[in-house]
Structure to design on (378 residues):
């Protein structure tokens, strides 16, 4: 498909250069124009060709909007934005799309998630009730955008039950919490449940990994530790194994593996507290996650410090950023879990900044499916 896209883009450029004295409409058909938009690059690659192709597509009848939306599944992030704008312009110029056609497109969950969400937006302009019906059916939708709409609607409905039927409100909030993926919405649901006397933590709601083996501190003065492979890292990248009996040379003397658990409601492992606010230091944290099958998944990390993550000996994440903020699911890596035990190693580096806001040395980590649903080790 990549070869096809590149060839179409090339042919389009060639055609443009040859079309002296002819209109662009004679140079490119809609399917080729869409392919050019699909391939527009984040750094402006193909921009000139895409601009001309977009002008062609904007003149299409509204009956062709679905073809534009379907192309989102193969488009680059920049291409998606172009296609969304083009679809909107087509409707504005040519008139609305049949709501029946749009609804059929939305109901087919194999269609592009962003395209389906945009189709709901188009339906809202003509039939708000139908759009609302589709949204309310989307609590477990594979499109995260549609799911966010559904969660917001469910929260709105449930809020009306709090005073008169608190038990029913609790049940509905819990059902909605199980479906929610957006961290902000999850936080709002946790607060709503807490206000109703329910004890539900962020760590529980997000399925944060709480139990770890840690070793450190190793040297990170002048930032030397981020790229230096200390023994735990070197051994793990060699054969994905850890020797917990090791006594190693650390920054301040001998270090060994210890058990450390996340104890706060956010599921954060507090290395600063454990290592007495050591500065210019590296620590490693290790855990195992048992999967019931081979499956695609994501490792999601929230960390205010520089970090690296390995799964089964393979590095899947590296972020050399210190104290620029932290949030749930700040960093995400697509991975493949194998059936059985999966070994995870996290490296967290603390620098030597002395400002009060630079004292944190901690992280939170979880394993999710591709929609962001937290998975638990079995």
């Amino acid at each position: 498909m990549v070869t096809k896209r590149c060839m179409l883009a090339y042919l389009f450029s060639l055609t443009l250069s040859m079309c002296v004295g002819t209109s662009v409409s004679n140079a490119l058909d809609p399917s080729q124009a869409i392919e050019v938009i699909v391939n527009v690059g984040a750094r402006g690659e193909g921009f000139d060709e895409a601009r001309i192709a977009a002008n062609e597509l904007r003149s299409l009848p509204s009956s062709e909007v679905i073809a534009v939306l379907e192309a989102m599944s193969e488009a680059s992030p920049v291409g998606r934005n172009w296609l969304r704008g083009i679809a909107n312009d087509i409707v504005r110029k040519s008139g609305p799309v049949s709501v029946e056609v749009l609804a059929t497109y939305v109901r087919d969950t194999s269609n592009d998630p962003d395209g389906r969400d945009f189709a709901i937006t188009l339906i809202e302009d003509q039939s708000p009730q139908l759009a609302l019906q589709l949204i309310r059916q989307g609590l477990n939708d594979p499109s995260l955008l549609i799911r966010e709409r559904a969660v917001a609607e469910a929260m709105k409905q449930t809020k009306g039950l709090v005073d008169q039927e608190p038990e029913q409100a609790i049940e509905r909030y819990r059902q909605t919490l199980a479906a929610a993926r957006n961290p902000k919405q999850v936080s709002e649901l946790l607060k709503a449940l807490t206000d109703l006397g329910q004890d539900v933590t962020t760590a529980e709601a997000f399925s944060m990994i709480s139990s770890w083996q840690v070793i450190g501190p190793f040297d990170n003065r002048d930032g030397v530790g981020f790229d230096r492979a200390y023994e735990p890292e070197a051994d793990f990248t060699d054969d994905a194994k850890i020797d917990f009996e090791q006594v190693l040379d650390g920054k301040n003397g001998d270090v060994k593996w210890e058990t450390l658990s996340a104890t706060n409601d956010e599921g954060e492992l507090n290395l600063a507290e454990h290592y007495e606010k050591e500065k210019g230091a590296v620590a490693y944290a290790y855990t195992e996650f048992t999967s019931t099958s081979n499956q695609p998944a994501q490792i999601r990390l929230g960390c205010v410090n520089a970090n690296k993550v390995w799964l089964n000996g393979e590095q899947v994440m590296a972020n050399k950023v210190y104290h620029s903020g932290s949030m749930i699911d700040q960093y995400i890596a697509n991975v493949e879990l194998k059936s059985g035990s999966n070994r995870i190693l996290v490296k967290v580096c603390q620098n030597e900044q002395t400002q009060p806001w630079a004292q944190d040395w901690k992280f939170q980590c979880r394993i999710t499916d591709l929609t962001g649903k937290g998975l638990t080790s079995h």
